Amino acid sequence: MRSNTSQCAYAKAEEASKEKTLHVKTEEDEVPAFVDDDEDLCKSLEKGRRLGLKNHEEEIITKEPGGLHRDGRMSGSGSRHSTMFLVVRPCGSSSAGIHRLHPTPSSHRSRNVVIRCSLSSVQEKKEKAELDSELQPSLAFPPIRAAKRVVLVRHGQSTWNAEGRIQGSSNFSVLTKKGESQAETSRQMLIDDHFDTCFASPLARSKKTAEIIWGSRQDPIITDFDLREIDLYSFQGLLKHEGKAKFGSAYRQWQVDAENFIIDGHYPVRELWERARSCWTKILAHDSRSVLVVAHNAVNQALVATAIGLGSEYFRTLLQSNCGVSVLDFIPRSDDGSPHICLNRLNQTPGSPIAGGKSGGRETSKRIVLVCNGSTQGNTEDGFPLGGDQPLNMLGVIQSQKSAELLLDLRVSSIISSPNKACVGTASVISQVQEAADCLGADCVPRYVEMKQMGELDIKSVMTNNDISNFPPFQPGWLNRVDDGLRTTLWNQSGKAWLSLLDEISDESKPGEVIVAVGHPAINIALMGHCLNLSKEWLGSFHLDAGSVSVLDFPDGAKGKGVIRCINYTAHLGRWSIPITRSTEDGEEF
């Protein structure tokens, strides 16, 4: 009687019986997938097809100490060291991608089978349409009954990270000592936060990070194969200089046009975006209010982007550092429609978010740091200044001092603020600390930091011309619920401010230039939207708190595409930082 694997595989083979016989040359630099039993193997192969294995052939083979078997017979009797491989290759091609499934215990021995898959041109066009990137304010997720917060964490530094080797979805690297330390720091950072469940990639570097962060919590970690890192096929395992030498133009395209990058007949980034959407369906369907997800750089980027409706052209735009934390809020709609989704923070790292001068592996040419003014005397109960021109209160002064201390790692050339009293107060504190920084040693060399005021950064006129008594509470996504006219005014005014800020960093003779812009959270949200080339419909997709810091990098200068290093960073505020998770009592929103 055939096993589940054999039944599934032979059914697929019978459907494609007219395909050519597969000829395979095995290599030792295999790329692993994860299969725990016959049924999971069948599911794994089905997932492979959904991810774009069009016009490809597959073969399962087993390798034992006595040699490689691919003739359809059972694997050797009693061997503990037999290894299963999934071979994937374009039909008619002589090259193949070799995927190690895992050392197969004797109880899991399976028949060697050949599976071939070929899609019609109509099916190919349909898949291409599904993979095409579409910019939309929100993805049509299934409705949810209660507010849900999802916390994404990237794994700690791995051995291949340290070597500069392309990992992809391979599973040969493990956490370095530094990576374990980063994971432990993240554990401490999240130790007081409540999570109902944890999803994790099955790859070792991510799974180990999840185990460290999850700590002594009793519930088991849920591993999901779809949370693995981006599939990079023949690139995997190569050092970066080897990728350049071996693949030339293809490697160049991977660097500068990743969305359209193609290798071994696949579009890895487009496939990843499709997979991320599948992940969200499963995560949102889980009966939990607070979810921890531990995965990888690229897949976390895709999860963030697909949640807020950004296409695959935004790959490498929303950075994910080792053990960086990103938070997404899913807020149910009263009409049972797709939930409101808000990016509460992006890439809150165990260390300083402004240390180092690289963004996604590239040197940063210019940088704009967005600082939200500290708390004011006229704040609402939710800690948010909706209108007026109030000075900083004592908490606001402390927040400003903390932000100034964080920015000591940067040499700021100028500080531009709204003329609002709280913004000017915050900017003054940052300026004083920057100017005094070089005088802390024996050799005091005072430095002048230019301060400017920009009227377009002032939100007072926008707010005072509207009835703020009807404003929604200051919660994630609050800008979704304000008057459309106000959003239009805010968007247009911030657009002028954005162009002025870009002009401030346009001098190419000043590489590494850093400016700080101090404004109201609402205006800073709009500035980030302009950085990403979005529209006013995205204003409710981001959230900023008083005293927070967000960092925008420009690897190609002011005329190039902006890269967001972090959003709503508040860890520098110490005891006044905003917690990652919040109470989720029945009937209570985040």
Automatic annotation (TrEMBL):
<keyword id="KW-0150">Chloroplast</keyword>
<dbReference type="InterPro" id="IPR050275">
    <property type="entry name" value="PGM_Phosphatase"/>
</dbReference>
<dbReference type="InterPro" id="IPR029033">
    <property type="entry name" value="His_PPase_superfam"/>
</dbReference>
<feature type="binding site">
    <location>
        <begin position="154"/>
        <end position="161"/>
    </location>
    <ligand>
        <name>substrate</name>
    </ligand>
</feature>
<protein>
    <recommendedName>
        <fullName>2-carboxy-D-arabinitol-1-phosphatase</fullName>
        <ecNumber>3.1.3.63</ecNumber>
    </recommendedName>
</protein>
<keyword id="KW-0934">Plastid</keyword>
<feature type="binding site">
    <location>
        <position position="205"/>
    </location>
    <ligand>
        <name>substrate</name>
    </ligand>
</feature>
<dbReference type="Pfam" id="PF00300">
    <property type="entry name" value="His_Phos_1"/>
</dbReference>
<comment type="similarity">
    <text>Belongs to the phosphoglycerate mutase family.</text>
</comment>
<dbReference type="InterPro" id="IPR013078">
    <property type="entry name" value="His_Pase_superF_clade-1"/>
</dbReference>
<dbReference type="InterPro" id="IPR001345">
    <property type="entry name" value="PG/BPGM_mutase_AS"/>
</dbReference>
<keyword id="KW-0378">Hydrolase</keyword>
<dbReference type="GO" id="GO:0009570">
    <property type="term" value="C:chloroplast stroma"/>
</dbReference>
<feature type="binding site">
    <location>
        <position position="240"/>
    </location>
    <ligand>
        <name>substrate</name>
    </ligand>
</feature>
<feature type="active site" description="Proton donor/acceptor">
    <location>
        <position position="229"/>
    </location>
</feature>
<feature type="active site" description="Tele-phosphohistidine intermediate">
    <location>
        <position position="155"/>
    </location>
</feature>
<keyword id="KW-0809">Transit peptide</keyword>
<feature type="region of interest" description="Disordered">
    <location>
        <begin position="1"/>
        <end position="24"/>
    </location>
</feature>
<feature type="compositionally biased region" description="Basic and acidic residues">
    <location>
        <begin position="12"/>
        <end position="24"/>
    </location>
</feature>
<dbReference type="GO" id="GO:0047538">
    <property type="term" value="F:2-carboxy-D-arabinitol-1-phosphatase activity"/>
</dbReference>
